[in-house]
Amino acid sequence: MNRSQEDVIQNTRTVIQGLDALRNEHNSVLNDLLSSLTIAQPTDCKLAEEKSVLLKKSLEMIELGIGEAQMMVYLHQHLQNIDAEKQKLRAQVKRLCEENAWLRDELASVQRQLQEAVQKIEVLEQQKAHSDFMAEIRKIEQDAGVTPSPGEEKKSSEEDSASKLDTTFPDEDDDQGHPDAMSPSGVSNTSSMGGSLYDVPARLRTLHNLVIQYASQGRYEVAVPLCKQALEDLEKTSGHNHPDVATMLNILALVYRDQNKFREAGQLLNDALAIREKTLGPDHPAVAATLNNLAVLYGKRGKYKEAEPLCKRALEIREKVLGKDHPDVAKQLNNLALLCQNQGKYDEVEQYYQRALEIYIKALGPDDPNVAKTKNNLASAYLKQGKYKAAEALYKEVLTRAHEKEFGKVTEQNKPIWMHAEEVTKEGSQAAYGDYGGWHRVAKMDR
């Protein structure tokens, strides 16, 4: 039969009590026996001594039993204390585990909050960098005096689509008068195609004007970082494949081109072309602008064959989107004519110049500077072919128009320079013009 520890201990205590009572009884008997030895007979004394010896042995056994029983009780109490301590330690361990789990949760929560705080700090740092950059832009605009007024921005945004160009440098338009110069496309507020409309942000137009100003001053150490900072800012806010990024790539490419860094410029223009084709479509005017700038870049490097198909594709896009009689089409025809002229394709050169001339006269009027520049380019092509009479007629038209615009109608007292040159040539005098014996030589001095 199984008994619990408590039952065993209870029985042990009962045994101790019994043994204690038995010990008292043995002590009492032993004391009586020892007292009787003093008055007993010798024969009785021997018997009493034997009994006392037996009683003493019994007492020793009883004492041993009581000691062992008490030891059992003490061990039981000690084990109970150990169990109690064990339970207490278990409770402490459980509490520590719960606290540890809570601390882990708190640590994870704090780590999440820290990560969110770091992300917010990064965003704030980016915003601060952007704000600092824009503040620097505004300061540069104020120092440079090129910030457009609200009225000017409104006026430029309401211009007819016929006067809108695409984002690149417009400052080389004056080079059209030179037979070997090609015109890049100019900056515009918007480019339209069908029902789509892409607005060039005002800050990019302002930045473009600043870059032109610094580049024209040869301050590329300012213009290049300005472009790169704006490009990095745009890529962070809008992503790489965005029309604004393509616009900034285009601007930076033309700065590199002005520094004769043609390889870097070509890479940027090709990247801008890919972005614009992807985001705006293959037939967008902005795509035509980038194609034109690539053609200009190849032309500056003498790669006329590679430039010609790019220029023709830009012409096709502008004819399709803007119409065949748009001034931008005429400008593209001028560029295409210059490429063909450098390849000796004079039949095509004359065809392109004649068509560009007709467009300019029809769209802008006979007194527009582009008409004079195109006539000058066509006359130069005639000279290279030895067609001096055709070149003479064009140069006379250009000089006569310029004279009438500046000094009024031609009369006997108000003659253009070519008439004076002819009179001097007829009289055989070389004093006034040195070695220039013909009117076209004098005209060369004014080109």
Main attributes of the structure:
two-stranded antiparallel sheet; mainly alpha; 447 residues; disordered C terminus
Describe the structure.
Strand 1 (190-193) and strand 2 form a beta hairpin. This protein starts with a helix and ends with a helix. 75% of the residues lie in helices and 2% in strands. The longest helix has 103 residues, at 42-144. It is an all-alpha fold. The chain has 15 helices and two strands. A two-stranded antiparallel sheet has the order 1-2.
Number-wise, the strands total: 2
- How is the main sheet built? 2 strands, antiparallel
Alpha-beta classification: mainly alpha
Mean pLDDT: 79
Q: Oligomer, anyone?
A: single chain
Secondary-structure element series: HHHEEHHHHHHHHHHHH
Strand composition percent:
under 5%
- Gap between N and C termini, in Å? 131 Å
| Discrete helix count | 15
Gross geometry: rod-shaped
Give the strand line-up of the largest sheet.
Answer: 1-2
| Rg over CA atoms | 55 Å
Briefly say what this structure is.
This protein has 447 residues and is mainly alpha-helical. Helices cover 75% and strands 2% of the residues. Strand 1 and strand 2 form a beta hairpin.
